[in-house]
Design goal:
With 231 residues, the chain is of the alpha/beta class. It contains nine helices and four strands; from the N terminus they run H-E-H-E-H-H-H-H-E-H-E-H-H.
Length: 231
């Protein structure tokens, strides 16, 4: 998923792309039950690599994991990039939708999840003009086990409200959102921007919820400017 961002290493940054437990065919670990499980894994990775001063970028679920990192290990974080995410917990209606998705995974597997989610994950421009991106996202989804997808859904539906955390964030922060994101629309990124003092907000045109895949050059340009001038 983050392959388009690896060229940022050419700017002199060390780029780490943690793989959440169970995803991309991984089966060694038990599925996650909360965003704290993922955050703990990231902290363990940073410790193993002796990294204690990182700029953390999280998109969608990764954004919720980033908030968990800020709750449990803020001293590791030198800067934040919050992409296509929000601070609020799921609404009761959202929790019910997650439960239906869990049932869909159990009944019909990863392919059915891809059918359900790709129209929501990708912006209208991407679906109309970049069919290869839709195929790539489908391949990413179906590469995961039902257990891993279920763990991710449970982490999403049980995550806490991180809105009270926003006013405590005092590191350089970039908020990024696709203009066509319907899952976490730009208005929610504007709320993050308003809640985090001194943060920047960049809207990526022609992108939906997966802005880093849909418009990688625009996404990377925003990150490069932030890393060069703010961190």
């Amino acid at each position: 998923m983050w392959e388009p961002q690896l060229p940022l290493a050419e700017l002199g940054w060390r780029v780490l792309v943690p793989q959440f437990r169970g995803f991309d065919g991984g089966t060694a670990d038990l599925p996650a039950t909360s965003v704290d499980d993922y955050a703990g894994d990231v902290i363990d990775l940073l410790d193993a690599l002796h990294v204690h001063d990182a700029v953390v970028c999280g998109l969608s679920l990764g954004g919720y994991v980033t908030f968990a990192l800020m709750r449990h290990a803020a001293s590791y974080v030198r800067g934040l990039i919050l992409a296509d995410t929000k601070s609020q917990a799921d609404t009761p209606e959202g929790v019910e939708a997650r439960k239906k998705m869990l049932q869909l995974v159990a009944d019909r597997g990863a392919s059915a999840v891809a059918d359900e989610m790709i129209p929501k994950l990708l912006g209208a421009s991407t679906r109309a003009e970049q069919p290869a991106i839709a195929e790539r996202v489908r391949a990413l989804v179906v590469s995961n086990s039902e257990a891993a997808i279920g763990g991710g859904i449970r982490a999403l539906m049980t995550r806490p409200d991180s809105t009270p955390l926003l006013s405590t964030i005092h590191v350089p922060t970039l908020v990024v959102v696709g203009d066509e994101d319907t899952l976490t629309p730009p208005a929610m990124s504007e709320e993050l921007h308003a809640g985090i003092a001194g943060s920047e907000l960049v809207r990526i045109s022609g992108a939906g919820h997966l802005s880093n895949l849909e418009q990688p050059q625009r996404f990377n340009d925003a990150l490069a400017r932030f890393l060069t001038h703010r961190v």
